[in-house]
C-alpha cells in the first residue's frame, strides 16, 4: 500500500498540478495559459504541439521556440521549463519531433534531421502567422541535448530569423563515453543500409547517465511516451552525421547564445561546448559550465541546482528583452 501511495505521489509531481483536479487547473493556478494541438507539416506529418503563454494580463516580452532531446517529449518533465518561462513573461512553443511523444512516426526513428529542421521552421512560421502581435517581439531558440544541435542547424538554415539561442548541454558531438567503439560503428553502418529501423545499437541507459537524483530517475522512467528501447540503426547514423556536420560548422554560428553544460556530463561533451564558444562568430556569447552537474540540468539535478540554471536562463533573457 505504501509503495502504491509513493508511486501515486511521484506521478502527481510529474504532471505538475499537485492536488488540483486537472492539468488546466494547475496552469490557471500558475497564472499562465496553455494549449495543445496537432500541426500538419509540409510533408503531411502530424506533429503534436504545445504552447505555454503568460496570462492575458501580462503581454509576452519574447517568444521562445523550444526543441526537446532524443527519446524525450514535450509533455512530461520537459514542460517544467516553459511553465516557468511563461510565468516570467515569455510565450513558449514546442512540438514533439518526428517519432517522439505523440507525433507521427516510428518511435525514436529519425531518418533525416534535415526534414526535422523543415518541420520546426514550418511550425514556427505558422505560429508567427497566426499571432501577428508576436512579429516584433524578440524570438529565441531553446534546445536540450539533440535539440541544441537542431537549434544550431535551424540558425544555420535561417540565420536572420532569431535573436538568440539557449543551448542546454547541446549535442554538437556525441561523447566518446557513449559512442560505440570500433568495429561496432563500421558494422552497424553496413547493417543500417538493409535494416535502418532495427533497434540494436549497444548503448548505456541515457536516463541513468543523465539524471543525478535517484527519485527523479523514477519520475523520468514513468513517462509513458519515453522510448526505452535501444537506439535504432538509422537514427544513430543520422545523429553521427549531423553532429559531425555541426562540429564542422561551429565557426559559422553567428547569433547571440547562452550555453549551459554540466562538467560531469557523459552524454554530450562539455569540451565541445567550450569549442563552440571559442569558435563561433557571435559577439554576444556566454558559456556556463556547472561543476559536478550531469546532463539533465533542468530536471535531473537537485532542486537547488535546477533553480540556479533557471535563474541563469532568465537573467540572460531579461538582459535581451
TrEMBL record:
Pfam families: Hydrolase_4. Transmembrane segments: none annotated. Coiled coil: none annotated. SUPFAM superfamilies: alpha/beta-Hydrolases. Residues 59-301 form the Serine aminopeptidase S33 domain. It comes from the Eukaryota. One of its GO terms (molecular function) is hydrolase activity. This is Caffeoylshikimate esterase. The lineage of its organism: Eukaryota, Viridiplantae, Streptophyta, Embryophyta, Tracheophyta.
